[in-house]
Write a sequence for this structure.
């Protein structure tokens, strides 16, 4: 073999290999998640880091208060220095989205976002006519929220503005479209003006696990609501959600008045192992559902209210409060089976039936 040709072939092979590796290296490096630190010279605000980030990047928020709205359209991870040290705070003037509603943090465009170790906080300063605070964290348009070890608090206006669909701490999905999903765990949701966690719409779902959800005593609130949505509410502590004056629509009549609940749920939702304390209704359920091992303490009207469907309660415990179980039939017959349910120290009826329009309510017990 010609030595010159052999050396030339080897050199060409080395060159081609180098070119190939070189062309791959930047692509491989670009695919690795980056960490963007806020605040820094490059990223003075949370939104500036979100805008600059690539899908899959991590944003680290140093201790401090970030007074801004944040909108996220891509897959990201946001991590603070702790819920007591890092806060995204509602700005004085909130800007509404395309649908006319505002939020402190918004997720859309099918983004999957992890948020942990920070607080999202109000209050706002609007009115029902002019820009009341809408939502703490809003998830819509196919987005998914993974929230853990966080806090969503003071989702209200100063002074209070109890507007329709206003000031929900966390809102997953929407009507008639705009489904979202979430895993919310080990977090605190407190001092909201509307509801703590709302999962809205047939295509929306959420797992709500080991959270503390606390209403307030100056305005009517609800704790965790699933409205036509599916999911799980397990091992949460939900308290202080009730009708407050002035609220002329509230009252104990299930046919003509409104009741507020610690957990409101429908078919397709698992409710288990929760502690529900000092709510107007501990649990208000519709459709077909089994509850189990929940503890109800000092709920004002009833610990559990089951309406228009088939229900089974297994090893739930009721202690104190106005009543035990309400079975309500308004548009279909209602059947409730109480399996090893303990009811003690209540001041009203252990079991009460409400029937309307010729439909019947039936309750059976098993010890």
């Amino acid at each position: 073999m010609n030595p010159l040709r052999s050396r030339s072939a080897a050199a060409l092979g080395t060159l081609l290999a180098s070119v190939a590796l070189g062309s791959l290296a930047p692509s491989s490096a670009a695919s690795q998640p980056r960490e963007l630190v806020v605040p820094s010279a490059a990223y003075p605000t949370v939104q500036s880091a979100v805008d600059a980030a690539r899908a899959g990047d991590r944003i680290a928020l140093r201790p401090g208060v970030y007074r801004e709205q944040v909108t996220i359209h891509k897959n990201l991870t946001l991590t603070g220095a702790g819920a007591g040290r890092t806060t995204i705070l509602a700005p004085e003037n909130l800007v509404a989205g395309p649908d006319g509603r505002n939020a402190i943090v918004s997720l859309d465009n099918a983004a999957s976002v992890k948020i942990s170790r920070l607080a999202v906080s109000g209050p706002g300063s609007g009115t029902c006519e002019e820009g009341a605070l809408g939502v703490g964290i809003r998830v819509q348009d196919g987005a998914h929220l993974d929230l853990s070890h966080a806090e969503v608090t003071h989702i209200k206006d100063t002074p209070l503005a109890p507007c329709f669909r206003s000031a929900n701490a966390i809102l997953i999905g929407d009507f008639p479209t705009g489904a979202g999903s979430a895993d919310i765990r080990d977090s605190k949701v407190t001092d909201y003006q509307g509801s703590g966690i709302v999962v809205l719409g047939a295509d929306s779902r959420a797992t709500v696990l080991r959270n503390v959800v606390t209403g307030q005593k100056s305005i009517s609130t609800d704790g965790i609501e699933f409205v036509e949505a599916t999911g799980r509410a397990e091992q949460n502590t939900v308290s202080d959600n009730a009708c407050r004056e002035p609220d002329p629509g509230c009252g104990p009549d299930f046919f003509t008045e409104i009741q507020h609940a610690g957990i409101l749920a429908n078919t397709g939702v698992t409710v288990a192992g929760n502690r529900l304390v000092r709510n107007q209704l501990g649990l208000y359920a519709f459709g077909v559902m089994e509850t189990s091992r929940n503890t109800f303490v000092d709920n004002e009207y009833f610990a559990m209210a089951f309406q228009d469907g088939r229900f089974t309660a297994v090893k739930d415990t009721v202690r104190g409060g106005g009543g035990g179980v309400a079975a309500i039939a308004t548009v279909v017959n209602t059947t409730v089976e109480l399996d090893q349910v303990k009811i003690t120290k209540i001041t009203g009826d252990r079991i009460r039936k409400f029937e309307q329009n010729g439909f019947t309510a039936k309750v059976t017990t098993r010890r």
